[in-house]
Every structure is written in C-alpha cells, then in structure tokens.
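Side project, low priority. Logging it here so it doesn't get lost.
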Amino acid sequence: MLSGWETASQKRRRFESSMTQTDSATLTVDTDTTLSVRNLVKNFEVGGGILSSRPRGIVSAVAGVSFDIPRGTTLGLVGESGCGKSTTARCILRLIEPTSGNVLLRRELEGDAGSEMIDITTADRNTLRNLRREMQIVFQDPYASLNPRMRIGDAIGEQLAVHTDMTREQQRRRVGELLEMVGLNPRYARRFPHEFSGGQRQRVGVARALSLHPSFVVCDEPVSALDVSIQAQVLNLLRELQEDLGLTYLFIAHDLAVVRHISERIAVMYLGKVVEIGESEQLFTQPLHHYTNALLSAAPLPDPVLERQRTRILLEGEVPSPINPPSGCRFHPRCPVGRTEEICRNEEPLLKQERPGHMAACHFPLV
C-alpha cells in the first residue's frame, strides 16, 4: 500500500467520529416543524479496483448537515456545484442511504389524533413505503424525469395505482384534477412528454409530485432548465400551491434571485457543510459568512448604476476536493481572513447563532 494514504475504513472512522451521533429517541422537535435534519452524513467510497494499486478513498459529500423547516414554509439551499445540495435532498428522501444522522418527518395521524415525528433514516421497508405519500420530489430536468413512452396521464396516475385502492375511473378523475391544478387541460393526459414544452413538462412533474397529497416536497433546481419567463410562471405556481395546500418545500437552486423570491429562510452550503442559515432578507442584506458574501457579490444587480458601484469579491484558488477536505474550516484556503488565521486552519467552526434567527459557522463572522 502506498505510504501517506488512509484506507477506506480509516477515513470512514475519521469522518464519522467527527460527527455528533444523536439518539433519535432523545431528539426534541418543535411542534410546528415538518422536517428536522440532524447531523446528516453521506460518504462515498471511490477509487481502487482490481487493477489499481491505489487504495479506495472516501468522498465526504455531506458532512454533518442540520436544519429544521417549519410547516408551510420554504427553505432555500444554495451553494456551488458539487457542494452536496442534491445529495442532501436524496438522503432526506432516502433515495440514497445516508451514512449516519437523523431525518425526522412529521406525519399526520388519522382523525383528531394529531401528528407524530417519524425518523426516515431508521424506518423499515413498510414504514418507508407509507412515508412516500408524505414526501415527494420535483426533479431538475422536466424531460428526463418522465418516461418518454408513457402518456402523462399514466405517469401521474402510476403512484395512485401503487399507493391507493382507487379504481381506474377514480384515478382518471384525480389525474384531471391535478392537471387543472397546475394549469394544464385535463385532455392533455393522453399526450406523450415530447408533445409538451419544457415549462409544461415541469408542470406535469409538479402534478405528479402532488398526486398523493404530500406534506413535504423537495424542489431540486426545478426552474434551472427553463427560460426566464417560464421560470417566473413555475415559481408563482409553486407559491400558489404552497398557500392552497399548506406544503413545505426544500428548494435547491443556484440562482440567488430565485431562492430569494421563494424562500423564507436560506441555508448556504460549502463542501458538504452548512456554513450559514438565516432569514432570506437578512441573509441577503447582512451576510455573516465570508463565502456567502462572495456568492452575493458574484450575483449581478439589475440596476446598472448600483452594479458599477459594487466591489466584486474574487475568491482565490479552487474548491478543495471532498476526498481530502482542508483541516479546520473547509473554506479557509479561499477565505480573505481565514488564510492568515491559525484558528481557521486548525479548528473547525461550529454553526452557532450570531444574530436572532441567523447562524453561521465562522470564527470571524461579518457582524
């Protein structure tokens, strides 16, 4: 084995030992919270192989992510490509298995029995199957997420056939109601995906996600592949549906203007970690983390006068590899302050409250 390399098991132990393990039975969650994520970790093994002398490594894709989403609100999740946003979402839904951590989803009980929090990460197969009705996802690519050989009425009604005991006629009526809900003619149910525009296909994706009356929906960059005018239509549709149905969203995007428009709170991720989380307007006007400040600086303003007056913050270097993340603060090699501070190089900052409702993981926040 090459010297200086850690084995996969050694790296896994090092990454997991740095995360606080929490017993799901001891978790306390506010009664108004729909989703609570605690210390979520996802590591992937890479490299190695039969013909390779190089040992397998560990990619720390998600490294101890925690946040809560109150009922009927939207949490925006932003960050550079590869920071772990979509991996976080898929771990929450258990489309991929998380390495460790807890994801608690509120499920309404029948009658007047109230609600209960279910830990998705430890749910057995039958429980997880029932939870699929409560949590859904709208994918980024509105065409790739639909079967090109399946009529959209069948694509939307597929979940109804699997998860309910509706008759074919009841499924047909429900599909028509869903298409009307997203602004499409019910007669379009017999059409194939290629007969729709990109915006219409994304509306079909939204209708499919809502077919089982979910309480929580992940929107994984749902407007990034659409024209600007169509983006506005889909965003307004999502807001209207949230108000009408009481939905809770986790909204993932790169476009800061889109996130600001639709989110009450925003979490900023960098290299697998949440570095800042706070109210939308406060985060945009008074960022605490140097990385958030750089992101906001990179976004152009629609006012040319104000745009010329701005000072652009240019980050030096490249994003470090998640296979070998920096010690201490993961952002310190590119941070204008952290590059020269010993504490930033050696000690990992904790996500803590700096202002009421505004948290940051930084030794030298912009307060």
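Brief comment: The longest helix spans residues 228-245.
Revisit when time allows.
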